[in-house]
Specification:
The complex is a heterodimer. Chain A is an alpha+beta fold. Chain A has a single domain, classed as Cytochrome p450, CATH 1.10.630.10. Helices cover 48% and strands 10% of the residues of chain A. In chain A, helix 8 packs antiparallel against helix 13 and helix 13 packs across helix 14. The longest helix of chain A has 23 residues. Chain B has one domain: Roll (Ubiquitin-like (UB roll)), CATH 3.10.20. Chain B is built from three helices and five strands. In chain B, strands 2-1-5-3-4 form a five-stranded mixed sheet. Chain B is globular and about 30 Å long. Classes of the chains: A alpha+beta, B alpha+beta. Chain B: Keywords: 2Fe-2S, Iron, Iron-sulfur, Metal-binding. Chain B: This is 2Fe-2S iron-sulfur cluster-binding protein. Chain B: Its cofactor is [2Fe-2S] cluster.
Chain lengths: 408, 106
């Protein structure tokens, strides 16, 4: 590509464009090889960082590349905690939250995840066809995350419906999406206030209500901002990896067989699915001191967008980077981010992904996607498949399980 | 290869051979030493590789940078000999160093 062509392509780069993000990898390759720090003129203008080494620098060096001005492009309407902080202030919030997200802590949720996956599969297994996105993956995650946050059972269907609307409506109804967002915000604020008046409950809300930072209890607003990122951080992202993995396994049945036989290691395979899907394609940092990155002069206030999605396909680090190689090792991917803000919920995500894939392969081993299936993606910082239609030999519901069809 | 000993709060010792230049966080994580988490991958940004350096090694461990100082402020139970293992590099000078792992890291 000629230098002026790459500049033009870069100037037009917009991660919120579904057309550009349907298959962004040829574009990323051009960025990495010709312009690893370039300038997009979209959304007010920002620098785009695409090589593994420089993306890692941006997310590791919080002294130069700060999160305190927000991490989305365009900026998100709410400040969220602790994602919109830098260490050491950010670290204090992580200290409070980390114990709930260790491998040991999240493993207690395994039976619940498994039961929910079974329940969702029961609702369509007799039919021989389904949309894995709408009927399995998207309804699964709120069912796990909402109780964790302290949303009572009676309110979960309503919250799930708002969340589903947020995800589905993004493509065509921004006003409706904003309204659903406001409803979720108002609901969570009300929930925080109500919980202050109630006896303590041992969940994340309870943890936040009883914790102190700098010797002071968290305010309602702070708790709300933490709940928001935990809620939204774990939905679209985990879905994106699950759907990409399900598609890969339908197209590569040998991989599915090798996973089920134990020939391939699940933990390693899941890291590769995370790398390959890169559920967060990129995030923003704001330059806080004059610096140079990859030869590009940056001044305080400049927006820098580090592309995890491109870094994870950088051939300087990953051999056969565009192939999903389930026994890839080592696999130093940035799919969960890098540095201080590395995904808080990554151990829960790994657990959810493994249980979902194992259960699907066990109960619906012959599912296939249409041979001409060309996935469409929701675009934004998070990128995930909109739908995943599958066909399979109808199976039987588990005994004594009531249908949950219609649960959003 | 410089040898490093990580002593758990239970008294159990893990003695490993680190690669020259490798951080003592990476050496611990790579050898599955319990209690050293290293969430941020060594960017001095998460304070989950906190260790207590045995006093006789403290001086040889070198100075604390401003970044490390800021992060040490948020570890659980900071003491005079607290350091972040990601900021200590395996070297001949530290061959034989003994680090104590705090009871809780997260």
């Amino acid at each position: 590509m000629e230098p002026d062509q790459i500049q033009t392509l870069m100037a037009a780069f917009d991660h919120t464009s579904e057309a550009q993000m349907r298959d962004p990898h040829p574009m990323y390759r051009a960025f990495r090889t010709q312009c690893p720090v370039g300038r997009s003129e979209q959304h007010g203008g920002f620098f785009v960082v695409s090589s593994y080494e420089l993306v890692k620098t941006v997310f590791d060096d919080y002294a130069r590349f700060s999160s305190t001005e927000g991490v989305g492009i365009p900026p998100h309407p709410y400040k969220m905690l602790p994602i919109d902080l830098d260490p050491p202030q950010q670290t204090k919030f992580r200290r409070v939250l980390n114990p709930r997200f260790t491998v040991e802590s999240v493993s207690a949720l395994a039976p619940k995840v498994e039961a929910k996956v079974h329940e969702l599969i029961d609702a369509f297994i007799e039919r021989g066809h389904a949309d894995f996105a709408a009927q399995l993956v998207r309804p699964l995650l709120p069912a796990i995350v909402l109780p964790l946050l302290g949303v009572p059972m009676s309110d979960q269907p309503q919250m799930s419906a708002w969340i589903e609307y947020l995800t589905r409506g993004r493509a065509n109804d921004l006003a409706g999406v904003a309204k659903a967002g406001e409803q979720i915000g108002a609901y969570l604020m009300g929930l925080v206030a109500a919980r202050r008046q109630q006896p303590p409950i041992d969940d994340i809300m309870g943890l936040l209500l009883s914790s102190e930072i700098d010797g002071k209890p968290l305010s309602d607003g702070e708790i709300f901002r933490v709940l928001l990122i935990i809620l939204f951080g774990g939905l679209d992202t985990t879905s994106a990896v699950m759907l990409e993995a399900l598609l890969h396994l339908s197209r590569n049945p040998v991989d599915a067989r090798r996973l089920m036989s134990g020939e391939l290691d699940w933990a390693r395979a899941i890291e590769e699915f995370v790398r390959y899907a890169s559920p967060i394609q990129g995030l923003r940092r704001t330059v806080s001191e004059a610096t140079v990155l990859g030869g590009q002069v940056l001044v305080p206030g400049d927006w820098v967008f580090g592309l995890h999605g491109s870094a994870n396909r950088d051939p300087a680090v990953f051999k056969d980077a565009d192939r999903c190689v389930l026994d890839r090792t080592p696999n130093p991917h940035l799919g969960f981010g890098s540095g201080a803000h590395i995904c808080l919920g990554r151990n829960l995500a790994r657990l959810e992904i493994r249980i979902l894939l194992q259960t699907v392969l066990h109960r619906i081993p012959d599912y296939t996607t249409p041979s001409d299936f060309d996935p469409e993606y929701l675009a934004g910082e998070a990128r995930g498949m909109k739908s995943l239609p599958v066909r399979f030999t109808p199976g039987r519901r588990r005994a004594n399980v009531r249908s949950t069809e219609g649960v959003a | 290869m410089p040898s490093v000993t990580y002593v758990q709060s239970t008294g159990v010792e893990y003695r490993i051979d680190a690669n020259e230049g490798q951080s003592l966080m990476e050496a611990a994580v790579g050898n599955l030493v319990p209690g050293i988490v290293g969430d941020c991958g060594g960017a001095c940004a998460c304070a989950t590789c906190h260790v207590y350096v045995e006093p006789e090694w403290l001086e040889r461990a070198g100075p604390i940078t401003a970044n490390e100082e800021a992060m040490l402020d948020v570890v659980i139970d900071r003491r005079e000999n607290s350091r972040l293992a990601c900021q200590l590099k395996a070297s001949a000078a530290l061959d034989g160093i003994v680090l104590r792992v705090p009871e809780s890291q997260v």
